[in-house]
Predict the structure.
Amino acid sequence: MTTTPPEVFSKVTELQGFNPFDPQTLQCPFPHYAAMRANDPVHEVGGLGFYLVTRHDLVLEVVRDPETYSNQFGQTSMPLPDDVRQRMMDVIADGYPRVPTMLTADPPDHTRYRRLVTKAFTPKVISSLEPTIRAITTRLIDSWIDRGSIEFVEEFAVPLPVEVIAKALNVPDERLADFKQWSDDSIAGIGTDLGVEGRLEAERGVNDFQHYFAAQLEERRSKPQDDLLTDLLNARVSGDDPPIDGATVADTRPLNVPEMLSILQQLLVAGNETTTKMMTEMIRLLAEHPDQWRQVQEDPSRVDKVVEETLRLSTPTQGMFRIATREVTLGGVDIPAGGRIVVIYSSANRDEALFSDPDGFDPDRANLKEHLAFGKGIHFCLGAALSRLEGRIALQELARRMDTISLPDSNRYEYFPSFMLRGLTSLDLDFTARSAT
Ligand code: HEM
């Protein structure tokens, strides 16, 4: 079964005037991307001044060359009118400086930050979260398993990753609602037109997040705990580490508060929305493919394949910005220095040159691992192992507790109007419970 309505394909005859923010396009951009891959794989978006890179090989060419394609898009990706910029600066002044660390930094600074965080966010730390993830999953399922129907986004896909990352960051239960709000505020403006007031409100939320965690970090200076925050406070590049080529930041100092806040904010943001969207698409796809649902129930070892194919077909982080550091020719298109580029991971993941029947859901496809849902290269998703673990545990437990699943007619299948993050606003799910095993 294809997940793109075929009638939309026939409407895409040419790409002139393509607007990634068009409401209809945001609901289903895939036919446009398919047309771009075929005819115009580095597409300059008229009037908006950026280039969409849609083919798998070209996306790889960009992300493997951070010298030419910079991640320092923090200030330049969304231009603002002067008066709005001033109001924004005033709000931001109430918080800590927003400094680029991982996602919005380039080597050598990126190398250094990434190394520090990797040390705090080790495979051991992630696998130690397994019992917590299973306990949260079980509790959530227990709360609705007798009802026979749920709204899956609010009752499962949102709270699971929020609670997991909150546990990882040692946030107490009574602050969970704030924590979720801060996460929403942090991504509010990404790929979505929020309006001026909406953006200012979101920045105020980011300030609240900063003040909360700055206080928590301060507390741990005198009372260290066994948690990620304390690990960040203690993180240093020790003398035993191999030198970082050309490092510009002193290698042995601890992180300062704005740097730690920037790292925490990235863990918070990246850990929530993306995983929520992945979970929701996974259950939608399985409800649409009852044969696959049955196979997972009969053979739980299939969960990993289902998670990967969901990431390929319903890529939550659809794209990511890059800035050209010099004049460069990509896929035959000349891009000026300073040109803004969006690598469209969700399009690369449907590239017919690599994936046969690219719009189909096939967890058994041979080259599944070549999807780019977590990016590639030096910015490869730091939380990939965590979100895979969450996806695996969630699906194991859902398949163990639910017998049949189906999608009632009440569903409207509306996606959030963002061209960077793709996910359903809600998903009604009907099910029958399995007898206790
Ligand atoms: C299904 C879930 C997720 C998806 C689809 C996803 C996707 C991505 C992608 C595509 C990138 C690369 C950005 C680029 O190319 O510049 C990225 C980077 C990143 N992700 Fe994730 N992510 C997910 C979950 C998580 C989680 C759970 C965390 C942490 C708790 C996380 C933390 C990060 C961080 C810190 C970066 C920046 C890494 C760097 O710049 O070195 N992500 N993610």
Q: What stands out?
A: The mean pLDDT is 87. The CA atoms of residues 1 and 289 lie 8 Å apart. The pocket of protoporphyrin IX containing FE is lined by residues 63, 71, 102-103, 114, 165, 266-267, 270-271, 274-275, 278, 316-317, 320, 345, 373-375, 379, 381-383, 386-387 (CB under 6 Å). The longest helix spans residues 257-288.
